[in-house]
Amino acid sequence: MNDGFAEYVAQRHLRLCRMAYLLTRDWGTAEDVVQTALAKAWLAWRRIEGNPDPYVYRIIVNTHASWWRRRWRGEVPAESIPEAADPRDSAAEVDDQDAMWSAIGALSPRQRAVIVLHYFEGRTLTQVADIVGCSLGAVKSQLNRALTRLRVDPDIQCMNLEEVQR
Amino acid sequence: MRHTETDLRRFLTEHSQARDHGEPPAHLDAIVRRGRRIRRTRRMLTAGATLACAVAAVGLANSLLIGPQAIPSVAAQPPVDSAEVVEPGPKPPEEFQVVLGATKFAMPLLDSQRFDTMGAAQTVTFTPASHDTGFKVVCDDPEAWVVLQQRLKNGEQGGSSGRCKDGVGGHGDEKSVPSDWLEGPQSMKVWVFPADAPVEEVVKDTVACPKGMKECAEHIVTWGLSQPKVLERLSEEIGERPGRWAVGIYDRPVK
After folding, report:
1. Residues of B in contact with A19 (CB under 8 A)
2. What is the C-alpha to C-alpha distance for residues A126 and B48, in angstroms, rounded to an integer?
3. How many other β-carbons are positioned within 10 Å of the β-carbon of residue B129?
4. CB-CB neighbors (< 8 A) of B16 in chain A
5. What is the ipTM of this complex?
6. Model confidence over A113-146: pLDDT tens digits?
7. Do the domain assignments include residue B193?
């Protein structure tokens, strides 16, 4: 096997799983998505020229989007977490993390993909546009809206307020 | 401290590492097995499609040679056994009623296409049979918002929008459709948004109501819904959600 596929899997599997986890928010699903993506990449391996990463990322993003559509059960992201912790609580830092995780989870699948590819994978916006299959302008627009949503998320505002009070 | 892009980068890195339970094993054999399974499925689908085309071609040839009465209708029979019964979703009506002043006529269904998700723009392609082509969108949720846009004469854009229950659609004629209407396949774009989509808010934010108006009137919201900025923003905010709908294409019966 064949033209470096095994080496690619050995080197990149963990990183791909982490990236997929940020998209899917479930470790088991992330591993499943990555295995599907790598299986599809294996089929096309000889036709992939250069770095396989963009190709594999594209499959992961598309697979996640299609699974999300198929498995959606009517959950609607909440504006705020019920019974939010007291901002003066000593566990505020943990709450900060939870608030950010919750805010990222409230993004649409495509906005989340743009955030993860750009800030976690360090891809340029042009590369992100190529991976998610839309124009650079659309990616910039998605990114701006996603960042705005993360910053105006009620939980994050609480967090900022608390920082000011300190 | 304000959340910066660096904070976001650090958060993603830490979170992706904190939530894994050790290094997940990369089962190369399982990956290759899954790859082979995908390839088998694709081949079966391709073979099935080819076979279906061949059967259709043979059936057509036979019916032309023998005549329709000689062949029992196999295609019209329901399946003998089905492991899974899937509800077909909304179905466009068989006829589209047109009233133009004193002129009234009905157009039969030419084509219909079904969709399982809402929120994203869908391009519907069809081949018109005449200049009198009609469209109608039907939805599982009658309160869903629908926007339909198509090319008109002289390159202008036209269409309609509103709640699905109001019968969003329309029809063209020789005076309104592009001059190349009958020269090949045509397409139109359809957006369907959930009933609870923040249409009024986005219309207010994006294209605004007339000054001094506290609330956008329904007809202004409906108009604003068809504006490109509103459509783009709604699609981004909502993403893609499950929700079944269908579009029917109608055409004037051949005389």
Report:
1. 16
2. 39
3. 18
4. 18-19, 21-22, 120
5. 0.76
6. 999 999 999 999 999 998 888 888 888 888 888 8
7. yes
